[in-house]
Amino acid sequence: MINAMFRNLPITKKLLLIINVATLIAVLFASILFGASEALNYRKTTVEQVGTLADVIGTNSTAAITFDDSALAAQVLSSLSANNAITKAHIFLDTGELFTTYSVDENPHLETDAAHMEVQQLLNEVMSSGEPIEKFSGLTHLDAVRPIYFDTELIGYLHLRTSLSAFVTTLERIGMVAVGVLLL
Question: Quick one: what percent of the chain has pLDDT higher than 90?
């Protein structure tokens, strides 16, 4: 049926239809490539920024861990409030024991069991390997766990959870622009 309709069109309408379909496919393909490129770039940039922030916070918390001052450690973590993307942070001692917590939530101690298990699993991986870990959980958040050293001695671990809501907003904008261009 479509073949018969296409066959009966004048040559100018056939050419316009072919050009419009080719343009539509090109815009869709370009939008997909741009979205994928943006996603990869955002992922890389976020990992680098969180890693740098974790290193700074870890370095600033060495005195608090060394002198067993959890109030000072909480104060160091509270500086994370300047970064809206950071939603949770934990400092663990070298034994894996929780030392202090930061959360943008009203009650930071009401963590779900699944979230607690996820952080504990990442902590165990870092404790066994000694290497920092960054793990994306879909499009919701990035968890980063890094060892904290004082000189060359391991004294603790820092966990940071970063929201990916800004990234999702960017992808939504790219999608809306693509749909707008297609409709035009």
Answer: 52
Residues 6+ apart with CB under 8 A from 122: 133, 135, 143, 145, 159
Helix (H) or strand (E) holding 73: helix 70-78
Q: State pLDDT tens for residues 58-69.
A: 999 999 999 999
What's the count of helices (H) and strands (E) in the chain, helices before strands?
Answer: 6, 5
In sequence order, what are the beta bridge partners of 133? 145
72 touches 64 (CB < 8 A):
yes
CB-CB contact of 90 with 101 (8 Å): yes
Alpha-carbon span 83 to 89, nearest angstrom: 12
**How far apart are alpha carbons 112 and 29 in whole angstroms?**
40
Higher-pLDDT residue of 37 and 180 is: 37
Give SS3 for 134. strand
What does the alpha-carbon distance between residue 34 and residue 46 come to, in Å, rounded to a whole number?
18
Quick one: 143 exposed, middle or buried, by C-beta within 10 A (0-12, 13-18, 19+)?
buried
Among residues 43, 75, 46, 76, the alpha carbon closest in space to that of 148 is found at 76
Q: Which of 34-48, 86-100, 108-122, 155-169 has the lowest mean pLDDT?
A: 108-122
Rounded to an integer, the average pLDDT of 42-58 is 92
> SS3 of 33, please?
helix
As given in the structure block, the two tokens for residue 5 are 């309709």
